[in-house]
Amino acid sequence: MYANSFARPSMNRPAQQPQAAETYHRVAVTLPGRMMLNDRTEHDCSVVEMSPGDVLLTANVLPSLNERVIAYIDHVGRIEGHTLSRTNNSFVMSINATERKRDKLAAQLTWIANRHELGLPEDRRHVRLEPRRSMTELTLDNGRQIACRIIDLSLSGAALDTDVQLPLGTPVRLGSMRAQVVRHFSDGIAIEFAAAQSRESLTEFLAN
């Protein structure tokens, strides 16, 4: 588990070491993304290691040292920073963020790194789909609808970003798919479908 992966080091460290890499420990994750460089060109990239303070990415086109980079990372969102170091096919980028955003990012990364251990619906048995339309609603048995954002969607369930943490076992519907709440995590819930869905049914749901 990575519950303590993002703990900050002792305050005895010299104050003149402000770089993010000195503040947080990265964890290994594999997340695709897209980045924009100073010249406004966009390029595919992939996260190899990430912390709330910096990120190691691979890409075919690399930014220059100290170059400003904006990246959109799957399941994480927009991050912005500057190139701290680079090799032939990878670079380390700082992450400029408020303390609140860093705390949220730490929670996201902990969930991403641990989801297979937590038993979340996205697992290696079922293909995961990338939703183009991420905003949707959960419907409760009493007809109440709760706004949510799809983080992950697989044939067996979904992880949803929502302000409402429904009790475990709560029956819900995502579109026409019956499910129940099986996990809580920071900023959201995980649901498991009553029956494994087909790729066609999920594709149809995402297209509506």
Key phrases:
single chain; 208 residues; mainly beta; Thrombin, subunit H; 2 helices
Blueprint (SSEs and pairs):
Layout: E1 27-36, E2 42-50, E3 54-58, E4 68-73, E5 77-86, E6 90-94, H1 99-118, E7 128-129, E8 135-140, E9 145-154, E10 157-161, E11 171-174, E12 177-185, E13 188-193, H2 199-207
Antiparallel strand pairs: 1-2, 1-4, 2-3, 3-6, 4-5, 5-6, 7-9, 8-9, 8-11, 9-10, 10-13, 11-12, 12-13
Would you kindly provide a brief summary of this structure?
With 208 residues, the protein is mostly beta strands. The protein has helices at 99-118, 199-207, and strands spanning 27-36, 42-50, 54-58, 68-73, 77-86, 90-94, 128-129, 135-140, 145-154, 157-161, 171-174, 177-185, 188-193. The chain is built from two helices and 13 strands; from the N terminus they run E-E-E-E-E-E-H-E-E-E-E-E-E-E-H.
